[in-house]
Amino acid sequence: MRIISICPSNTELLAFLDAEHLLVGIDDYSDWPKEITALPKLGPDLSIRMDELEALKPDLVLASLSVPGMEKNVDELIRRKIPHLVLNPQTLDDIGQDLLKVADACGINAAAIHAEYVGVIEEIKTRGQQAATRPSLYWEWWPKPVFTPGNINWLSEISRMIGARNSFDDTDSANIQTDWADVLKRQPDYILLAWVGVLTAKVKPELVKKRPGWTGMKAIDHVHVMEEELYCRPSPRLIEGAIRLGKLIHPAQFEDMQLPRFIKEKQT
Predict the structure, then answer these.
(1) Which residues contact 245 (CB under 8 A, 6 or more apart)?
(2) Would you tell me how many other CB atoms lie within 10 Å of the CB of residue 19?
(3) Cα-based distances in Å from 103 to 9, 10, 15
(4) CA 72 from centre of chain
């Protein structure tokens, strides 16, 4: 079977199914696991070069509406009558169901990996429930204009799981555009910078202190750069991100938690 993935999270789903060997092409941003990076790259996820994609004669193209703007790629796949599967995950359960959907499309039995995925989520929830405090977390996807996740998003879910809360969980949206004054008014306990598409080394936390009024924010000494690939992509790698977040916010509950087997195996 010949598969093309046109966004990183779908590429990672295939990897967790041990099916990355079926890939014949990827988008420019897919970078994990490293073995796939030698495959033909077909452009940024929002500007896929469809002639090149079609020339690879895929049996299936994996797209995802979790990437805003992906609709135009889907429309073009439909126009060209190229077989495709469109995912749209917003929650950890959605991601688990997507594992099963992609597995089914590839003729793979994913029952074991899905059960392990669900099991580690339950363990994280149990540990988070033991925490004595529920600090508020401001997640920053983009600094100017400010974009942050709302309540209908995996980062709100992960925040709750580890015993905290997203400071913008009062808005039933996956993605919110706001401003620095609104963030300041909410007075979060932690500022977590996960700028979409930006390498961790290029995120500058010192710039946060230059924002009007932010030097007086109680979270100003708790600014952390978070790995974009562990928090911004709806794939099972979010589990690794959740465990790291737990160790940051509630070390007493999470310091001894190990990565699950299905993640460890892909890191070796």
Answers:
(1) 158, 159, 162, 164, 226
(2) 19
(3) 14, 12, 11
(4) 21
The pair of structure tokens assigned to 124 is: 């994280």
d(Cα 92, Cα 47) in Å, to the nearest integer?
A: 27
Q: How confident is the model at residue 268 (pLDDT cuts 50, 70, 90)?
A: low
The residues near 146 (Cβ < 8 Å, ≥ 6 apart) are 140, 177, 178, 179, 180, 182, 183
Q: Which residues contact 40 (CB under 8 A, 6 or more apart)?
A: 24, 25, 26, 52, 56
Give the separation between CA 18 and CA 230, rounded to whole angstroms. 19
Residue 133 contacts residue 163 (beta carbons within 8 Å): yes
Residues 171, 177, 182, 183, CA torsion sign: positive
CA distance 199 to 148: 18
Q: What is the pLDDT of residues 203-237, one digit of tens each?
A: 989 999 899 999 999 999 999 999 999 999 999 99
* Tokens of residue 220, six digits: 């100003």
